[in-house]
Amino acid sequence: MAKPLFVVGKHRSGTTWLGNLLLDHPSIAGLHHERHRGIHESAFFSHVDGRYGDLDVFENYVEFAAVMARSDYFRLAGASFEDLMELYPANYADVFRVIMDRVAEQRDARYWIEKSPMHTGCVRKISDYYTNAQFIGIWRDPVDVAFSWIKRQDERHASQFGRLLALARVTIDKYVVDTHMLDVRSSQPEQLYVVRYEDLVDDKRKVLNGIYSFLDLSQVEVRSRYEANTSYTDSQTSGSDEGANKTKRFKRSSHEEKFIQCLYNWGLPLLSARALIHLKRSLRQNHKSSLPSWFFKLLNESLDEDGSEKSQETDGSALD
Questions:
Q1: Is the dihedral of CA 247, 253, 257, 260 positive or negative?
Q2: Burial 175-191 (b: 16+ CB within 10 A, else e)
Q3: Which of 12, 60, 116, 252 would you label with 155, given CA atoms 20 to 30 Å apart?
Q4: Degrees, nearest 5: CA angle 64-70-73
Q5: Which of 121, 133, 111 is nearest to 45 (CA)?
Q6: CA nearest neighbour of 98 among 22, 12, 4, 168
Q7: How do the pLDDT tens digits run along the chain, 320 residues long?
């Protein structure tokens, strides 16, 4: 049986790029698609786990199976409604593991990989579900994360107060996520290995070899088939000379950078864990009451039985 491998870290920290690089190792299998910038995130343990109630109740399980069978993640895994119904009775974690074990088996891989930034706060829960799971966390400078996030969210033209609020919101969320990730690393170092995004940019091979050693995998030369989904330049992420092509960033003021640094390094560490969670919730714009829209991005596209997209419609590969 393959081992579960989860890539975690705050959004805009390089989780997709790292996941795509690891996905190219011959002993690691996972789900990917061009429309999802490569490796596809499931957000299963942050958004799906427990959502439909007790799955021992048949009606609950039917609803769960019907929705999952329409989702991109399970379709790319080749899991139909009938496949999921055959697993009844089963809990959330068992269903996910069976589906991912099949993905790994098809490639004869030692690990199956899943990448979801929203799983960073679920590491302890996931490790309870899968005692042999391994986690690779990625940390990026909070200033770069904050500006990358608001650029991605198109908040460049907000009022000065609105922009500062957006920067505060993402910085608080990052601090809470980072604190949880580093606490888990301290208590479970055999399960969680953390790398720095900046180190991955500077020396990709060295960082990947460290991860391979942690996972007890052979060192191989890999190059992701997908472009890095990042605010760094392509030349930086591909290992070329830094500065060959300057990233075109929107203006970021020095007082905004100092605000983020002071908040992350001095203000937030003074608060208790309970206060941090309360503050994070109070600044949250939208409660995760529904599944993300990207759960069903490929709903109207035809996929083959194994989950891969039909060749006459696109050249994108879906399943390793």
A1: negative
A2: bbbbebbeebbeeeeeb
A3: 116
A4: 95
A5: 121
A6: 4
A7: 899 999 999 999 999 999 999 999 999 999 998 888 889 999 999 999 999 999 999 999 999 999 999 999 999 999 999 999 999 999 999 999 999 999 999 999 999 999 999 999 999 999 999 999 999 999 999 999 999 988 877 655 568 888 898 999 999 999 999 999 999 999 999 999 999 999 999 999 999 999 999 999 999 987 777 777 644 444 344 443 333 333 444 678 999 999 999 999 999 999 887 787 777 666 665 444 688 888 998 877 766 544 555 543 333 333 33
Q: Look-up: residue for tokens 């009938």? A: 82
In the structure encoding, which two tokens stand for residue 192, read together?
A: 């969680």
